Amino acid sequence: MKTKTISLVLCACAIIALFSACGSKGADVRDDVPTADIAAAIGSAAGLTEGMMEAPDTYVTVNMEPEMGVTIADLSDDYTVFMNVTSVNINEYGVFKAKDSDSAAALKTALDAYLKYRDESWMHTYLPEEYPKLENAATTAAGNYVIYTILGETEAAAAVTAFEDSLKK
């Protein structure tokens, strides 16, 4: 009987610690950073300052939204997307600030759908050496912010680090 009680108390403590850790992570993330600032930090850290341009709003509304099944304006307060200017590589990344935590989760799901669409529609004869970037494309969320990266392994790792560092309190 005593062992059961101790086990229950330890289990309850573990659950409380788990919930406390989850709650504090969100509290450690800033919610006031413009996406353009985060995107600039990503570009600098990942060495993506040359040959990249900020995508116009029409890129998001015409190319991304139909594949994501949502309207970015419904989920996001702010976003910045960068893409390669020339057709020598497929480098692309985007930073989105969701309106709230529910919108952040929906935005991450939508961006995952966009990346899946890009992967499924890839023509493997076009720049085959670039396909690993798309194959390993990913989304990352922190607080109400979500990024996606279609980058090489080193650049993607630097992008995620810059993203997380930009949001530290």
Our estimate of the beta-strand percent is: 15-25%
Low-pLDDT runs: 1-25
Describe the strand arrangement of the main beta sheet, using strand numbers: 1-2-3-5-4
Mean of all residue-level pLDDT scores = 85
Compressed to H and E, one letter per element, the order equals HHEHHEEHHEEH
Number of helices: 7
Portion of residues within helices: 40-55%
In this structure, how is the largest beta sheet organized? 5 strands, antiparallel
Question: Compute the gyration radius: what is it?
Answer: 19 Å
Structure description:
Mean pLDDT is about 85; it is low at about 1-25. About 55% of the residues lie in helices and about 20% in strands. Helix 2 crosses helix 7 (about 155-165) and helix 3 packs across helix 5. It has about 170 residues and is α+β, with helices and mostly antiparallel strands. It has helices at about 1-25, 35-45, 55-70, 70-75, 100-120, 130-135, 155-165; strands at about 50-55, 75-85, 90-100, 140, 145-150. Strand 2 (about 75-85) and strand 3 (about 90-100) form a beta hairpin.
Secondary structure blueprint with pairings:
Blueprint: H1 2-27, H2 35-45, E1 52-54, H3 57-68, H4 72-75, E2 76-84, E3 92-98, H5 101-120, H6 131-135, E4 138-142, E5 145-150, H7 153-166
Antiparallel strand pairs: 1-2, 2-3, 3-5, 4-5
Helix pairs in contact: 2-7, 3-5
Question: Would you summarize the structure shown here?
Answer:
With 169 residues, this protein is α+β, with helices and mostly antiparallel strands. Helices cover 54% and strands 18% of the residues.
